[in-house]
Amino acid sequence: MKVRVFVSLKPGVLDPQGRAVHHALEGLGFGGVEDVRVGRMIELEVADSTSDEALREMCEKLLANMVIENYRIEKLETA
Amino acid sequence: MAFRSAVVTFPGSNCDRDLAVALEKVSGEPTIRVWHGDAELPERLDFIALPGGFSYGDYLRCGAMAARSPIVRAVVEAANKGVPVLGICNGFQVLTESGLLPGALLRNAQLKFVCRTVPLEVANSQSLFTAGYEQGATIMLPVAHHDGNYFADEATLDRLEGEGRVAFRYGDNCNGSQRAIAGVLNQAGNVLGMMPHPERAIEPELGGTDGRALFESAVKALVAA
After folding, report:
1. Lowest CB count within 10 Å: A66, B118, B192, B198, which one?
2. pTM of the full predicted structure?
């Protein structure tokens, strides 16, 4: 099964990269952009039997740094 | 008693030699070099140092991969038994990622790599690593990093300050760190992580000697023990 893990900075954690991207979008003339936060998406191919518990553990032990980041797991059905 | 120190080298470390030389110059004893793939540390170590650099190419997050390597599991075990551990720059990032120190190091607030000699305030001169400095003294040490912006939640920052665990603060907060924190200690006081490079400031010919007292403090405390 294919799993996507979205890792994003927690609200309140300064995101200088997001700020720079925001600034660049404005520089390109795009108006109305309120805020930009940069995160990361990790795609995993795992055995169908992989438990939710194991996926959460992967996120909390390595994929996300729980001090500064949140994660969201999205399971995609096997094509 | 001979001072037995070890420096761990990860793929991508680049301050490991300087750190080993600094420990050797100050202690007069050879520093043991440990490779990241080793599962065990040498026996009876007095001091373990994690160097600066870009371990594992900074993949995922700075220090994240190194913090999960077998050798760092052994370092965590040793630290929990009381062996002094010093992490400099990337070594500091490894220590926060491993959970030995609280907080995290984010991208510098101004997004620039900072590489210059900066003033630091010695915020705690009572530790094993900082006893050779005067409390509140200003020292000059080089920094060279892109991700040195110290972050922890307010409660953690209050606790660190209340317990005297902020070892160094930036005089000019060159990277946007919370409360200008440049170096923190663990609760027991045997683990120090710091972004500035004391190992680059031990010889007058190389621009300064303000880093020497850090190594001298540790050697003195540990050889006397």
Report:
1. A66
2. 0.94
